[in-house]
Design brief:
Elements: H1 2-29, E1 36-42, E2 54-57, E3 60-70, E4 77-84, E5 94-99, E6 106-111, E7 124-125
Parallel strand pairs: 1-7, 2-6
Antiparallel strand pairs: 1-4, 2-3, 3-4, 5-6
Length: 128
């Protein structure tokens, strides 16, 4: 009878730890429910970036890549960025491809610019 109690306690501890990992993973991949807007960015390259990649400002996720296409006239990639609407960005901002330290997944890192006009939904942006 004592063995069953110990086994039950160990199983409960394992389940609690697993639930903790799931909660951590959920919080790490979902930044909450924010309203978003989409802008198109004309870039020189999107090496390693895929749909779903994060968009970050100073390491904080503010959006994700919703689509990638090729401009048939200029042969530049057009990246559709779905961005949080509570984080205004200027068209003077710059963007670069960065890589996460822990998992190595590439993401877009935006350096907010000063001046310029605020990006709005549906706009095409050519970062500097």
């Amino acid at each position: 009878m004592r063995n069953n109690t110990v086994e039950t306690l160990i199983a409960a501890a394992v389940i609690a730890v697993a639930a903790g990992f799931f909660l951590f993973a959920y919080n790490a991949t979902h930044s909450g429910s924010y309203n978003t807007y989409e802008v198109k960015a004309l870039l020189a390259s999107v090496d390693g970036i895929a749909v779903g990649a994060d968009v970050k400002v100073h390491g904080i996720k503010i959006g994700s890549v919703s689509a990638i296409e090729l401009d048939s006239k200029t042969y530049k990639p057009i990246v559709h960025l779905s961005l949080r609407d509570d984080i205004p960005l200027s068209d003077a901002s710059s963007i670069r491809i960065a890589s996460a330290i822990f998992n190595g997944n590439p993401y877009f890192s935006i350096q907010p610019g000063r001046g310029g006009k605020t990006l709005v939904a549906g706009e095409t942006w050519e970062p500097h």
